[in-house]
Amino acid sequence: MKKIGILGGIGWPSTVEYYQIISQKCQSYYSSKNISGPLPTPEISIESLNMNFSFNNRGSSELGSWDLWDAYFNDALKRLENNGVDIIVIASVTPHSRLTEISKGISVPIISVYEAIGAECKKQKIKRMLVLGTMPTMSTPAFINGMRVFGVEAYYPPTNELKEAVVNIIQRLYENKTQDAAQEINELVLSCVSEMGFSNTAVCLGCTELPLAFSGFSDNASFSVEGYLYLNSTVIHAGNAFLECIE
Amino acid sequence: MKKIGILGGIGWPSTVEYYQIISQKCQSYYSSKNISGPLPTPEISIESLNMNFSFNNRGSSELGSWDLWDAYFNDALKRLENNGVDIIVIASVTPHSRLTEISKGISVPIISVYEAIGAECKKQKIKRMLVLGTMPTMSTPAFINGMRVFGVEAYYPPTNELKEAVVNIIQRLYENKTQDAAQEINELVLSCVSEMGFSNTAVCLGCTELPLAFSGFSDNASFSVEGYLYLNSTVIHAGNAFLECIE
Fold first, then answer.
1. Among A24, A51, A171, whose Cβ lies nearest the Cβ of B41?
2. Which of A83, A108, B1, B110 could bridge to B42 as Cys pair (CB 3.0-4.6 Å)?
3. CA B203 to CA B182: how far, in whole Å?
4. A150 in contact with B, Cβ within 8 Å
5. Could you read off the pLDDT of A26-41 as tens digits, one per residue?
6. CA angle, B46 as apex, B40 and B52 as ends, to 5°?
7. pTM score of the predicted model
């Protein structure tokens, strides 16, 4: 097994999800094999950051405004590399929009969340997808570009009001407050879809907090609620990390 | 806040517990303060080991038989130190019985589980305590000696059969199989106590897997079930790490 590095803490509940999914998938994988002693898990290094610091040091469109933020993530990736990890997974979608900047000087492969989700879309023949995420995710074209490679037309909530509503739900989920969140997400999706006039669309929970709202489905890569197909970015991304680990 | 290092993976479910307890205690601590942005959490490095390797390389009473095991843990502690952590907590009771050997050359303070539990006993005026743990814990005097400093007479299950029963329960909990475990632990305690002829005793869940059996009480440092006072080593130990972190 390869040693996995997880860049986490952004936020901490989704770091738990990634670590649990990888550990459980690994134990299922070995449970049918003839193993002496406890079922193996890969060695894992986790660098868990302080989300208060990263959030308060997000940049704007101004040149250099992301420098502190970029360095905070780049340093953590370097520590993972120094720990001897063979692959890295970032347990949060948001930093992927600045992957080029934060991975400067890192030679260990970083498993992209866009590629993991794009491959899943291809498998499920998804052609159009609403992406719900943090404000940086929904303000930059990175996710949309990442999906285009896989023939998927991705789009964000069409108004600022709807984007703000997504962000409010995420903020509560970060503090592990899950009550009513699933219902609110469903209503929000309905508003986005009717605003855009689309009849056929999947929904990507494109922020590692959002799947925490759907506790009954937290193990599934995708699931249907009230007629919409949801993709769970956490399960898809962490599942890819596990597959890379045992390859 | 100090940066925390967690030596984990032995096993992974208790590593999740330590990480969650520290993160949640930190968010509760800051929730009453005037904080801009998401509630802070400390920066945390986790080195998660492969329990299959450590289990299969446990030594015996033979000289040098623990060398590989000691080096495995010592190397992981060194990686935590290199990551710049200020304090270290080992998310498992078992390795504490070889703390002297595995902490060679480490200058970062390691928060002892014995001192955390001893202080809690003193606070709760506990004088006698049955310790349930892994076989290495129940075969070495380290836990008993650690408690004596705090005026607590600690003892292990009095027969090999009873010790084996504890180990079997732990093995299932490591794989997150919690069904019937609480009931079995309770019956086991009854057998130990009647065998020893003690009428007044507390019980230390002295292995980080065991508290996972009592899901309803997983947040409590101590709790009563069927007339016995149980101490949750995970909550007590992780709580101490949090206090050290904000000190």
1. A51
2. B1
3. 13
4. no
5. 999 999 998 898 899 9
6. 150
7. 0.93
